[in-house]
Structures are given as C-alpha cells and as structure tokens.
Amino acid sequence: MDILVCIKRVPDISGRITLDDSATDIDDRSLGHTMSAHEECAVELAIQTAADTSGSVTVLTLGPAEAVEQLRAAVAVGAKDGILIETDDLSAFGPEDIASIIGDIVRDRAEQGQTFDLVLLGNDAADTGDFQVGIRLAYDLDYPVLTGISTLHAVEGAGAGDAGAGGPGSGGPGVEARGIGPSGTEIFSLELPAVIAVQEGGVDPRYPSITGRMKAKKARITEYDAPEPGTGNPRIGLELPPETTSSVTILGEGPDAAPALVDILEEIGVIRS
Amino acid sequence: MASIPTHASVVVVGAGIVGNSLVHHLAKLGWTDIVQVDKGPLPNPGGSTGHASNFIFPVDHSREITDLTADSVRQYKELGVFTESGGFEVARTPERMQELRRRMASARAWGIESHLVTPEEVVEKVPFLDPEVIVGAFWSPGVGVVDSVGAGTMMREGAQESGALTVSANTEVTGIDVEDGQVVRVHTNKGTIETDKILVACGVWSPRIAAMAGAAIPLTPAVHQMISVGPVPQLAERPGEISFPIVRDMDTYCYERQHGSDMEIGSYAHRAILHEPDEIPSIEAAKLSPTEMPFTDDDFDPQLEQALELMPDVLSNPDVEIRYAINGLLSLTPDGAPILGESPQVKGLWSAAAVWVKEGPGVGRAVAEWMTHGCPEIDVQNADIARFHPHQRTREHVRARTSEAFIKTYGIVHPGEQWTSDRNVRLSPMHSRQKELGAEFFEVAGWERPQWYSSNAKLVEEFGERVMDRSAEWDSRWWSPIINAEHLAMRERAGLVDLSSFVIFDVFGPAALDAVQSIVLAQMDVTIGRVVYTPVLDETGGFRSDLTIMRLAHDRFRVVTGAAHGMVDVKWFADRLPETGAQIADLTSSFTTIGLWGPRARDILSQVTTADISHEGFKFGTARTIEIGSLTVLASRISYVGDLGWELYIPMESGLRLWDMLTEAGQSHGLVPVGLGVYGTTGRIEKGYRAFGAELDSERTVIEVGMARPKVKSQNFVGRDAHLRHREEDPKAVLCSLTVDDLTSSTGEKRYMLGGEPIVSANGDPLVDGHGHNPYVTSAGSAPSLGKHILMAFLPPAEAVLGNQLQVVYMEEFYPVTVASVDATPLFDPTNECIRR
Question: Residue B267's domain is classified under what CATH number?
C-alpha cells in the first residue's frame, strides 16, 4: 500500500505563545519548528501500515524552503521520499487552495503511474487549527474520508458499512480505522483509495535512529513551486486567549497539613466523608 | 508574593553551579546577610548548568584552568557527587597524536596521571569502539562525571542552614542603581535590596545584568549541540549512570559519554552559532529551558556520520533512537578565559561568568576569597575581568573572536597562534613603515606589533649557522629564523623596536609619592629623573605585576607596563589611591615608545641630538627630556634586552617622525628594525629577565624568583609583611635558567621546546618542589648570542644547583639540560657590561 502523508511545518510550541506584530501569525523567532503532533501520528501509522503491506510512504508539504526539514524528519523515521511545494507566503493559501494543490499532486502522480492508496493528514494543524483540508481534499478527489482516526491497519477485503455485519465488502484492499467518537470507540472499515485525518493518541511516534537520520539527509525531495493561491486565506487574524492564572496555596507542612488535605479531597470528590 | 530582604552584604545573581558555589564559600568565609536570586525555579533555574554534560577532563594546557578544575573535583568529591569513569581523548591522525604527546607534557607539568595508549588498550575499556578508526589515545584515569545541580543544591542549602543566606527563586533583577561609580542597590520584581555588592553569576545572561549597571561582561551565548541516543543494549548491561570511560573524538570535535543506557553525543564541530543575551527566550516561552534551544539538524548531521564510524556497533542499531537533541547555550569569551573579579567600570559589580561545570566550585572559592581578602589562593590573572581593553568589551569584538574560537574548543592550538578576526584595531604611528618593511604582525591587546621583519631576511644569510634555524614544523610555526638574526644584529650593531603597545599611566598630585610608595615594593622616594623597576605584590607577597616607574616630578610618577596585563595594573593602582591627593591618568594613547638598543645606540642617538647622552651624562636608570631635532622626547636609559640604549617616549603624532630620523641616522651604523620576537623572548631570556604571566604570578614570591633586594624599605607597602616573612623562610622553589645540552631527537632532528614542558631528573623521575608542584618550563627561547636554547623553570631548591644535570620532556622524548643560573644572573653578559658602557 502506497501512502501519502501531508504534513505542515509549524512552530514548536509548548510554552507561552506570542503573536507577531501583524497578529496574523505566531512569533516563531525563538521557537524551533516541527510537524503537528497529529501529523507525527499520521506518519507513524503510515509507516506501520506500509510496512505491513510492503508499501511505501511519501510525505508532502506546502511551505517555505525550510519545510524540507520536516520532510526529512519523516524520512528519518521511515518515509521513502518527500514532495515540497514551495511558497514564501503560506498564509496566502486557504484550506480550499491547499486541498486543491494536494489533489492535483495526487492526480499527477497517478498519471505518472504512482497511485496513492491512502492519503493521511493530521486532523488539524497545530498553528491554525482549521480542520478543513482533509475533508476538502476528499471532496476534490472524490474519495471517502474519515476524520478523528487514531489507529489504522490494513485489511484484505474491506467494504462500506459495518465490517462485522456484511462480511467482506467488495473484496478490494482496505483499512480498518478507529477513532474516539462522542459515545466511544468508532470502528470503520474503508475501501481504498481514501483520505483519513488522524488524531493523536493512538500510537507513539517513533524517534529517528542515527542511520535513519543519515538516510534522511540523502533522501529524494521533489520540489515544485506553489501555484497562485485561488480563494486565498480568509483568516483575518489571531487572538491570544486570556491568560489563565494559577495560584498555589500551601496547605501546611507535615502532619499539620492533613486535615486541610482531607477537606480538599472531599471537596473534589476523591473521598467521601 | 514572597518578600525579599531589604538589605544585603552582597546580592548573588544566579543559582547555577557558580552562584551556588559562591554563596557556599562566602558563607564559609564568614559572610552574612547574603541574598541569592534567580529568575528561574529551583533546583534547576534553566541556565547552562541544567543541561551540562557534567563530565570533567582534568588536563588543560592552562595551569590556571587545570588548578581550578582540580580544586573543583576535590569539592565535588567531598560532596559525594563525583563518579570516576576515566576518559580517552582519541586521535585519528598523526597530527593529533603529536598534540596528545604535548598534552602529556601538560599532564606531567601539572602533576596529573595520564598515559598514551594504543587503540587496542582503548578497546579493552570501550569494547564498542572501532580500533581501526584511531591511531592512539590519551588516557586520563581521573576523568569523571558530577551531579552539578545536586552539588549546587547542597552548597546553597548548606549556606541557608548556616543562616548566612536568603534565597529567592523566581526573582528577576530589573535594575541596578549606581551612585558615584558604586553599586548601591538592586531592583527585582520582588522588591529592592540595598547593597554595595552585586555578584553576577548568571552565565549567558551576565552581560544583560552588568549592562544594567553600565558595565560590560564581554561574553556571548553560543550553541553547543548535544543529542542523546538510546536505549543502547551494550550500555544497559552495566548498572549505574556511567561505567564506560568517556571518549573525546578529538579530530571530529565531538564526545561520546554514557548516561545510563543512553549515549550522549556532543559536538564542537559545527559553525559558531551565537545568540544575543537579550534575545534568549523567557522561561515561559521556552520549549524546554531557556538555554536548551531548538536543535538544528543540519549542523549536526556530519557528526552523526563520524560518531557512527567510531562506534558502529552501538550507533547503527535501528532501535537506538535520537530521543533528545538540543542546541544548548553556553558562554564564550573573546580569549576563552572566564570573567572573574570586580568590574573596572563599576565599583561593587563582581563577575563570575563564562565558567564551565568543571571549574565551577573552584571559581566559587577563588572569587569568594578574592572578595573577602583581596587575593585568591589560585592565581586567576588570566580570568581577571579588568584585563579587557575597551575594544575587547565591544559586542563586535566578542562576536568576531568567539566565532573564530569555537572550532578551537577541541582544536590543536599552537602556543604562538594568532587571531585572524578583528585585527588592525590599534596601529602604531610607524605602522605604514613597518608594512613596507614586510613586518609579520602579531596582535596583543589590539595592537599590531611586528614580530619580525622580512626586510631582515638578508641577515639570516649574514649570520648563517648562528640563527639556529628550526626544521620541525611545529617548532617553527609562528616563528622565523629572522628573529634570531635580528637579535644578533642588535647585539653587534643596533636595533629599533616599536613599543607602542605599552600601557602608560601617570600617578600625580600632592599625595602621589605616598600612593606609589604604598603600592610597590621598591623605594619610590628617589630623585626626580630616576627610573625604578619594581615588583607589585598582593597581600600574600605574590606578584601582581612588575613594571617600571619614572619619577618625573616631585608630584608625578609615570608607570609603564605591558599591554596584555596593563589594564589590570591600572585598576590595581586606582583601587589603592588615597581618597584625596592623588589621581591616575591613562596616557597609553598619548605616547608611543621606540626602543633603541645595541652597542651603536649612543652613536646613532648622538647624531640626532645635541644632548649629553654620554655614559656619565645620562646614567643608566635615569630618564629626562631631550631634544631630537624639533621633537621633545622623554628618554629613559633602561633595557629589557640587555644592551646599551634608551626607551624614547614621544607623542603619538610625532612617532613616525622620530622613527624616520632614527632610521636615517642609523643607516651608517647598521641599525635594523627589530621585532617583538627579540624583545619578548630572545633578548630577555639571555638576560634571565622575568616576564609577568610566565615566571611571575601571584603564587610566586620575590625570593623564589631571585629578585629580592638587599634591604626592604621602611615604608609600608602592599604585601610587605608577607614579603618580610618570605625573606626569613627557605624558598620552596627557585627560578633557574637551564641550557639544553643536546636538542637532537630520536629521529635525528633537532627539536626546540616552546614552553610548558616538564623538567624531570636525569633518570626521568618526576621532581616536586616545596609547593608540591612539578617543575615545568615557564619560558623557552633561543639565545643566539650563546648558541644555546634556554629554558626557565622553578626547581626544587635541592635541584637548583649550578651544573646540575636534569632532563626536559618534549613531545614525550627526553633531552638533557643543565642548570646554568640559580639567582637571576644573566647567562649573557653576567656583569651587565653591555648595558653600562
């Protein structure tokens, strides 16, 4: 199974976020860059699934020249090659534009004989959080789509509907995908080709090995210039949420603190009086 | 919000290994009301200590750093946080093996056990290392790892428990008030503290804090890349944090250090990546900690390949993953030395910055001693914050030199190696002439100083064998036989030396005599026009400096000292002036100095002046103003090269004119320009003249260096009590000059020691002086007039006997030497006839 994983270069955030002067982007000057956590999981699922099916993984990104670092990071953990669609102004591209660009790449590759059975994306990007590109891409390609998926494995003969009820579906290659829904784990069986948006939590992304990292350095990265944006990005700006302040109350020290601790535990329902 | 004390005897900024060691030692020395603040949380506030690799290799080419490291190891061991692992520095190339042989010299000189070993011996201890990749290694059994955060916590909490210290974490310094040049209070986000001392020990942030007081701590945050890979089955087999020796892969500038089942790989091979102290992210905005910056893979990729070559079995395992990778920030300075002591710019602003974990506790003790009684036990002159000349404190200079130096962290640095960046900062008025003469410029304190002149190449032919040419590449690097030829031309005819780099300052005012009298050893109540060469001592009777002072008037003394150390001298004098009645004026940029020496010096000078410069009319050790053409020149009849002649002081703007007049007058006398190679080495070493920083430092006494005068003046001066005591004691070491009897190596090539080599007994046993030190060569150089290579070294008194046969170890070969002087008697012209003719 050949899988395309779409990733995005985003600021590596775990501390306080600050915005740039235009308030349309995160100030990333002192931050490193990474791919979104959902996408790390998508890459991991793709590598596992490809390994199970003797397939391969290609990673794609739309972004600045430096985004090649994220492509190589994916190669370092097991992807075969990468596609960089280069633009200096990612913010000019809205979700619809990006879906259409990816769709074109998938069709182009198919014409050249490389068919992607599965296109994985992150559920949403860590910086913009649009939740848009996966669904729009599926629409563009006329593929079925799942979102919020956290585990994945290849199955022989999948079909629409409940995998258990109707037995094997149409008999073609497919995947079984699971995600956490509002009322529990949702299990899907899906024929290929398909688009799946991955939610983190189902797998632990692997770290690169030294040999993997060295392979990544030499990996083939195909570069394209991004086309002119179409509908553009409708985002007007970003706003920081109000800072949540936390305060620490010292309950006391040693045995003297016990009664106050018991009160608190009762208050939050851990123990009953 | 927790409140902080409103008063403190000292505010220590920083709770890394340095700040914590400092509060411990200050408390131990009796300080109370110490306040320590850090803007981060405890125990790891987020500075460089928190991500340090925490290993210690004990041998450094610098004695000062080696001693500070040894003291630190002792302290870490006392705290129970030192684990000995042993360590290899492996060589992949013959050039590196030569450097490791040189490292053996430093190990022997500083008395630290080390051995050169074969690849097979390395593999015995590190079985996963590929022996085919290396040609040999330097084994230090004393290498180990420490818990620097744990050690710091114990030291800090100990000081707290003693009641001497209040600690305030999450407390950021927001301002420092300075009144009349003196620190008076420190503002923080938790309140204001009245204090007259602030001690800046906050690593990469130190420049930012110092700038709040209007002072400079010239360091830059720089990246050291480090990754941690694991789990490594070969490492996991053994218990504990470290059970395999640490490996420094010197030729690829990286190290491999076991940490439990992980291997840390650190690199000093990448491009210099410098940051600005003001742009380090805040604790809140940082991903890991402020000094663990995002990793830049591209910079590290070449290191991975090289590490893989060295340890293929461990690192090619696909299950061994890169789990942690940082661009860790550390502090670099333009000359590589730490920055310690009180700022010369603001009273009460102390620095203990640019210090590595391996020196932390030693620096803590040294600076605490310095703050308490004025002089640390270990000489830290090379780290003195007062050493910087103004241009060396600029951001541009710091960036230029640290960028150049980063790759030298594991590099092979020749002792004579010159900087290439930020040159041509200070040019003498004669610079253009010197360029025409093909001068090879060496730089000191920003000054471009001719080391030798290629225009003198013809002299090499003239003097033939006597120039003692060197065939070994290492011995002749940053050296030329022209130096020795210039020397001989000066001894036989005359030489002209540009001494513009002298630091010159006047002490003047009605109390000037009392001031200099109280600072220096020599009697300064001398007749006007006398020139006095004198040691300057600290309270323990060790050398703070040696310099010359001219008494120009009843109330004016002109002090002349060297460029490298001169700024420290200025501060030393300024700090010891009486409150009124005496002042200092730095005249370094006002005067250039031209030295004229040699048997023809008087003939040449008399051609351009009508002044009486006869031996009787212008006595040795005197100075006076004479007319040379239309120039008014302060002439001083002294010599650091051991020949008849004068230092001629002239305003900068007239220096070129004087140079040209002397050059022209000297033509018929065979006068040649002579570089600092003669002035600094060959000329002085033949005469046994001591140099500050080589023979003279604060751990040496006047007696040991053979410079005691018959009588001690009755007036008090700094270090007098100690000096009187030293005169009553037997010296623990004696400074001697030695001649090398045979320079021939095992390959038949003549080799020339450059300094730093150990001196051992005739049968190769180590010697130990009364301080417990091993003798080593403090200065080495050609003595062309004698046809000898001369070494200076402090010997155990029993060995300091004329004619005693010993050996010097150079590149791990033994050469016979003979003690030729034990009391500062010059080997060339012992009766000083050449000077007094």
Answer: 3.30.9.10
Q: Which chain B residues are within 8 Å of A31, Cβ to Cβ?
A: 281, 285, 287, 294
Enclosing domain of residue B204: 10-46+151-219+335-386
Query: Per the residue annotation, which of B25, B224, B431, B723 is the catalytic one?
Result: B224
| Contact check, Cβ <8 Å, B285/A15 | yes
ipTM: 0.81
- Note whether A207 contacts B285, CB cutoff 8 Å: no
Residue A99: closest CA among A131, A68, A135: A135
The Cα-based distances of B479 to B414, B416, B419, B471, B793 in angstroms read 11, 8, 15, 11, 22
Q: What is the CATH number of the domain that holds B582?
A: 3.30.70.1400
Domain count, chain B: 5
For residue A262, tell me if it sits in a domain.
Answer: no
pLDDT (tens digit per residue) in B18-45: 999 999 999 999 999 999 999 999 999 9
Q: Would you call B255 a catalytic residue per the annotation?
A: yes
Cβ burial of A273 (10 Å; 0-12, 13-18, 19+) is: exposed
Which of A9, A30, A243, A248 to substitute to test the interface with B, most B CBs within 10 Å?
Answer: A30
Note whether B108 and B120 are within 8 A (CB): no
Q: Is B741 a catalytic residue?
A: no
Domain that holds residue A199: 2-245
Q: How many domains does chain A have?
A: 1
Q: Whats the size of chain A, residue-wise?
A: 273
Q: State whether A209 and B281 contact (CB < 8 Å).
A: no
Q: Is there a cis peptide before residue A168, judged by omega within 30 degrees of 0?
A: no
Distance of alpha carbon B734 from alpha carbon B823, whole angstroms: 8
Work out the percent of chain B whose per-residue pLDDT is above 70: 100
Residues B720-736 pLDDT 10s: 999 999 999 999 999 99
Whether residue B393 is predicted with pLDDT greater than 90 in this model: the reply is yes
Q: Encode pLDDT of B266-310 as tens digits.
A: 999 888 999 999 888 888 878 888 999 989 888 999 999 999 999
Q: Is B224 a catalytic residue?
A: yes
CB contact under 8 A, A15 and B293: no
Whether residue B698 lies inside any domain: the answer is no
Query: Is residue A266 assigned to a domain?
Result: no
Residue of chain B whose alpha carbon sits nearest to that of A33: B294
- CB nearest to A213's CB, from B283, B294, B322: B322
- Any domain includes B412: no
